[in-house]
Amino acid sequence: MRIDKLATNTISEDLPKLLESKYGGHKHFEYFMSDMERSRLFCCENDNTSTQSFAGYNGDKLIAHVSLIKNKRLSRFEAFFGFIEFPDDTESFNLLWDSLVNEARSLGISILKGPVNGSVWHQYRCVTKSDGTEPFTAEPICEPYYFTHLVSKKPSAEIQYYSAYREPFDIVLRLIDRKALEKMSGLGFTMNEIKDMTPELLQTIAKISRSVFSQNWGYTELDEKEFIQLYSLNKMSAHLNSLYALYRGGEMIGFCSTSEEDKKTLILKTICILPKYQGLDLGNALAYKIHQDAKERGYTRMIYALMREGNSIKNFPKEEAVIFRHYAALEFKI
User: Fold this and answer.
1) I need a labelling partner for 18 at 20 to 30 A (CA). Which of 166, 211, 259, 293 fits?
2) What sign does the CA torsion over 23, 25, 26, 28 have?
3) pLDDT at residue number 314
4) Which structural domain range is residue 176 located in?
5) What is the pLDDT of residue 311?
6) Which residue from 191, 197, 218, 208 is spatially nearest to 71, judged by alpha carbons?
7) Single residue among 124, 157, 189 that ends a domain in this structure
8) Residue ranges of the chain with pLDDT lower than 50?
9) In a domain, 134, yes or no
């Protein structure tokens, strides 16, 4: 395999063809590629990032790719790596990895985080284990062997995630109980289901998200322009089923969104509640209401998407949940 160092702030123009050859048969491939394009624009046409890509060729055919992504919001000694693809071959992977590490060291970088396609607001993580369930909308798609090769480089940290489903999900209504809603009301909180996104609502979601996720692994700030580009009204409206918003007085203090995977399946995203209101069972109130409404509307399957192991809703019940995919994000000291 031949490794080519590409021009700064470019991704190989052959990468979409490689991705299609590997993942084109997946139901949500077009959505996956639209996310990939948003990541490319963020990395290559953004004053806050600088990207150096390496492409591995067998003759004139692209078979491997990786990008070193410097983000001004990280420390000067840290960088992301992303847009990574390679064959299940140790020699090819080592050539690609060595190119990445040598470039990082030449720039004074001593910590690599990834796979991250620009920021953790974009696609990140790699699959570590799967039962073969078809990927859902917005889920990372990659080969499980990537993780095997990456961990051979002995990461200093591994952050674990999972996705699960319940079918049926009635047990959630029994385990949480309606008392969670009563407790929420007794504490002076209210909940509202929102179907239509507005610019003002999008800005509020951005503000809450920054506050909640700012201490998460790999977090970098997005300015308002970057957030709106990533979570445009059109994108949110196209994929939002409902937004369940929590209020204290007139102030939104938390939310959880759902999207429809098919006529019988809802995807439940991460519950997001401002830190000072966590620990009050508000997450359970949101979960109860979402499951209650879903059942009344004829849904029979709930997907719990990309949940971090050990996060603030770790006490959310796992009974009768089928964990169908595991993922990891990795950190390397080089």
Assistant:
1) 259
2) positive
3) 46
4) 166-328
5) 64
6) 218
7) 124
8) 314
9) no
